[in-house]
Automatic annotation (TrEMBL):
<keyword id="KW-0597">Phosphoprotein</keyword>
<dbReference type="InterPro" id="IPR036890">
    <property type="entry name" value="HATPase_C_sf"/>
</dbReference>
<keyword id="KW-0808">Transferase</keyword>
<dbReference type="InterPro" id="IPR005467">
    <property type="entry name" value="His_kinase_dom"/>
</dbReference>
<dbReference type="InterPro" id="IPR003661">
    <property type="entry name" value="HisK_dim/P_dom"/>
</dbReference>
<dbReference type="GO" id="GO:0005886">
    <property type="term" value="C:plasma membrane"/>
</dbReference>
<dbReference type="InterPro" id="IPR000014">
    <property type="entry name" value="PAS"/>
</dbReference>
<feature type="domain" description="Histidine kinase">
    <location>
        <begin position="154"/>
        <end position="373"/>
    </location>
</feature>
<dbReference type="GO" id="GO:0009927">
    <property type="term" value="F:histidine phosphotransfer kinase activity"/>
</dbReference>
<dbReference type="Pfam" id="PF00512">
    <property type="entry name" value="HisKA"/>
</dbReference>
<dbReference type="InterPro" id="IPR036097">
    <property type="entry name" value="HisK_dim/P_sf"/>
</dbReference>
<dbReference type="Pfam" id="PF02518">
    <property type="entry name" value="HATPase_c"/>
</dbReference>
<dbReference type="InterPro" id="IPR004358">
    <property type="entry name" value="Sig_transdc_His_kin-like_C"/>
</dbReference>
<protein>
    <recommendedName>
        <fullName>histidine kinase</fullName>
        <ecNumber>2.7.13.3</ecNumber>
    </recommendedName>
</protein>
<dbReference type="GO" id="GO:0000155">
    <property type="term" value="F:phosphorelay sensor kinase activity"/>
</dbReference>
<dbReference type="InterPro" id="IPR003594">
    <property type="entry name" value="HATPase_dom"/>
</dbReference>
<keyword id="KW-0418">Kinase</keyword>
Length: 410
């Protein structure tokens, strides 16, 4: 559908007003390239601020914290678009000074050196869609029961501040920075406060990232990096847990691995999740992390001698992992988000995560990351893991078991 251009009133007494060509009731803004509001319609002032004077403010001031980067990029893309009828569209959470936030769509078109923007409140449409689906669709009903992702993000940010203070106080008490605690129980309690605070902080971080992934707002920050030091760091992060479990942790990293574009934080989360799962479900033996280059890609492999998974469990991978195994072999719990997030983060990198396993025979996890030397090579290269990938994994497991049975018989 063609996107109709905006028409701004330019009379001397109306230069700060903006109108949609179809009428004056629509919420319309004229924006500078950096997002500064140059003019606004009556409808825009009603939607955003009531009596608030919008001129001179930035549209970014009224965007939810997690949406600002995406809105800034949309402004930039719209400025680069020379087609008058091609609008850059974005849905985001609009913050209003005198009312609650609303789910809003903004359509941006270039207007000379500035931008024209049309805002549409999509909240009623979203509520109506959810209501219509909720009566007949159990999955939609479950979605309705979940907290809003934007609310989760805001709640998470609010919780991180007091948790940081609690952990800081616990650290000071553990170090007896202001004198001895006096009783061993106090020291024990300080350790427990710090440990549980750290666990809660990890849960919040997982919750925030999951909310961003579900909302399509998780953004990678890739840089040209060497995979070898990153892999060693991941192994050291898990080594203490492996040693406490009585497991050997082996690290095998090939020499002269090429640098590649990756988000170190996201890749670290993938590998540490795989290593933690391996430790969690291995009663005795070893966990091995190997890194090598193969066919123009970096292959991170985590191999364990643990309990393994059935074909049914493998087929359900990508769901929350603890729905299959709530506790590890030592009763270790988890958030249920780890492996599911690892799949999503691997796909965002244009890579793929595959697991092969069989009951009693351990699990092998392969995270394959294509070697790319620039951001341009990463664009649009996402790979997804679909039913065909899962079936190929099951075929490999079945073949492995047939070969093993044959060797044992011989």
């Amino acid at each position: 559908m063609a996107f109709r251009p905006f028409a701004f009133l330019t009379g001397s007494n109306r230069k700060d007003r903006a109108e949609w060509r179809a009428g004056s009731g629509d919420p319309v803004l004229r924006l500078a390239p950096d997002g500064e509001i140059l003019a606004s319609s009556d409808g825009a002032r009603t939607l955003i601020g009531g009596e608030t004077n919008l001129k001179g403010r930035s549209i970014l001031d009224f965007a939810g914290r997690d949406d600002r980067a995406a809105l800034k990029e949309a402004l930039s893309r719209a400025l680069q678009n020379t087609r008058a009828e091609a609008a850059e569209r974005l849905k985001f959470r609009l913050l209003r000074p005198h009312a609650g936030p609303v789910f809003t769509e903004i359509a941006l078109v270039r207007d000379g050196h500035d931008l024209s923007a049309l805002l549409r409140d999509r909240g009623p449409e979203l509520a109506a869609l959810r209501q219509s689906r909720g009566a007949s669709d159990k999955a939609s009903a479950a979605d309705e029961a979940r907290p809003d992702t934007a609310m989760l993000a805001d709640l998470g940010h609010e919780l991180k501040t007091p948790l940081g203070a609690i952990m800081g106080f616990a650290e000071a008490m553990r170090a007896e920075a202001f004198g001895p605690l006096g009783h061993d129980k106090y020291r024990e309690y300080a350790d427990l406060i710090h440990a549980t605070g750290g666990h809660a902080s990890d849960l919040i971080a997982a919750m925030l990232d999951r909310a961003k992934l579900d909302a399509g707002r998780y953004e990678l920050a890739p840089a040209l990096s060497s995979p070898a030091p990153l892999a060693r760091t991941c192994a050291e992060m898990v080594r203490g847990e492996a040693e406490r479990a009585g497991l050997d942790l082996n690290v095998e990293i090939a020499e002269d691995l090429p640098e590649t574009m990756l988000d170190a934080s996201a890749v670290r989360r993938i590998i540490v999740n795989l290593l933690n799962n391996a430790v969690k479900f291995t009663a005795d033996g070893a966990v091995t992390l190997s890194v090598r280059e193969k066919d123009g890609a970096i292959e991170f492999s985590v191999i364990d001698t643990g309990v393994g998974m059935s074909q049914t469990a493998l087929a359900r991978l990508g769901e929350r992992f603890t729905a299959l195994h709530k506790n590890g072999v030592r009763g270790t719990g988890g958030t249920g988000l780890g492996l599911s997030m690892a799949y999503r983060l691997a796909n965002l990198h244009g890579g793929v995560l595959k697991l092969t396993s069989a009951p009693g025979e351990g699990t092998v996890a392969h995270f394959v990351l294509p070697v790319r030397k620039s951001l341009k090579e990463m664009t649009g290269a996402n790979i997804t893991t679909g039913p065909a990938d899962i079936q190929s994994q099951l075929d490999r497991v079945a073949q492995y078991r047939r070969e093993r049975i044959g060797r044992d018989a011989a």
